Amino acid sequence: MTKSKFPTRNSTKLANPCQQGQLIELEITDLADTGDGVGRFEQVVVFVSDTVPGDRILARLVQVKPGYATGKLDTLLEASEHRIRANCIVADKCGGCQWQHVDYEYQLAAKKNQIIQALERIGGFNDLQVDEMLTGKIEGFPQFLGYRNKATYPVAISATGQVQAGYYQKSTHKLVNLNQCPVQDPRLNPLLKEIKEDIHWRDWPVYDEKKHTGELRHLSLRIGRRTGEMLLTLIVRTGDLPGIEEQAAEWLKQYPQLVGVCLNVNSAQTNVIFGAETRCIAGQSYLREKFAGLNFQLRADTFFQVNTEAAEALLEVIVGELNLQGSEVLVDAYCGIGTFTLPLAKQVKIAIGLEVQPAAIEQARLNAELNDLRNVDFQAGTVEDLLPTLGLIPDIVLLDPPRKGCDRAVLETIKEIQPNRIVYVSCKPATLARDLKNLCENGDYQLARVQPADFFPQTSHVECVAFLVKVLADDSAIEIA
Questions:
Q1: Alpha carbon distance 13, 20 (integer Å)
Q2: Greater confidence, 87 or 330?
Q3: pLDDT digit string, tens, across residues 261-320
Q4: Is 427 noted as a catalytic residue in this protein?
């Protein structure tokens, strides 16, 4: 793939000759970071989903804005060499994946290009070392299907009264019913189909988001990739499901790998899936998993990377790049349940994990005890509040913020305490580029290397890790390997 500047929907507002409903011929030349294909019609950028660079198409324009338009694929006139047959029969309808129709090698190239363009365009970086995309592997082969260890599906009632669960169509709240999903761990598929039938038989009322009535909102499935243990969680409005205890006990008997059935109560009128209260109905409230040679307990609402193998591969890169000597002080900001903190703690003197969610800190401490790791200190609170109060200068700061990136106060504190090395794990190239530009703008740090990783095959989302090194007074950078 040749590098190109990805168009965005914030293009300069120009007079637009396009008309809504118009049928136009396009050649698709790029993939946007939303996953849509990109073409140009009379110099206007047009975004069309379900297309691939190299496609020649007829597109029906559905939205026209100053400077750009969006269209729907009407006719495929000539297929790109990178177009493949999707592995899912509802891939053209379901909003869960954007790229089932794009061959995997081209997906990887597009994601790497997405990172390069963000770092150059937003971050102002040139002469970048961006490595080839890292993938999760099973028996040595890249794993681009069946990788998700967790899936959460909204629930609805069909026109014929059947209970449905699946993903929404893109940009709608119209549910695409699924009985299996090619990107989730295949061991979860029987539960997806059969539990819907049990819900229908129990006649539990399904949630109506417009009226804010009914009970059952989402169905959540989680599996330990290494242990095979499963958790089933029903997200409900109030928790009033007659016979739930009896049904939960039946599920545990029916599925030997199912170790727990939980209820999560979310009474808010919101698109946030999980509420604050989760209770175990039968079995146990967690599953066991092995990650990077350590034992973890994962609860129903615990954040844990959905691609276990890719996360381990990325951790191996971090360990190799840091070349730890056992004398370092490491601060893991946004540490969650200690997914990266604990494996790294085995190779440093002291590891400190910071996380805003008290429940995650509680689990992180438990996971440290499970692995007899005593050199770890987990603290609950915002990173911007906790980092300035640690009273030490860490050798390494690991950042793994949410998609919005780091709070500016966090970046300013890091520039004040000046750790020798910064490791920034990101799930959104645009905010990564913005934050790296901030950290490097005064010449205190140098961007040494960026390693992309494909945590989310068949989608446009991409993970990566950037390594920053402190620049010494003589303009040399500290060696990191």
A1: 17
A2: 330
A3: 999 999 999 889 999 999 999 999 999 999 999 999 999 999 999 999 999 999 999 999
A4: yes
Single pTM value for the model: 0.92
Q: Where are the domains of the chain?
A: 1-83, 107-138+306-470, 150-291
Homologous superfamily of the 1-83 domain (CATH): Nucleic acid-binding proteins (2.40.50.140)
Is residue 353 scored above 90 in pLDDT?
yes
> What is the rounded average pLDDT for all residues in the chain?
93
Tokens representing 105? 């090698």
Q: Is 70 exceeded by the pLDDT of residue 173?
A: yes
Q: How confident is the model at residue 136 (pLDDT cuts 50, 70, 90)?
A: very high
The residues near 316 (Cβ < 8 Å, ≥ 6 apart) are none
Catalytic residue among 18, 88, 181, 427: 427
Contact 204, 241 (CB under 8 A): yes
Q: What is the dihedral of CA 178, 145, 222, 372, to 10 degrees?
A: 180
Q: What is the pLDDT averaged over residues 112-134? A: 94
354-395 pLDDT, tens digit per residue, is 999 999 999 999 999 999 999 999 999 999 999 999 999 999
> 1-83 and 150-291 share one CATH topology?
yes
Task: Give the integer Cα–Cα distance in Å for 320 and 299.
Answer: 30
Residue 91 is encoded by which pair of tokens? 């891939």
- What's the CATH code, domain 150-291? 2.40.50.1070
Domain 107-138+306-470 fold is Rossmann fold (3.40.50)
Tokens coding 404: 């919005």
Question: What are 210-231's pLDDT values in tens digits?
Answer: 899 999 999 999 999 999 999 9
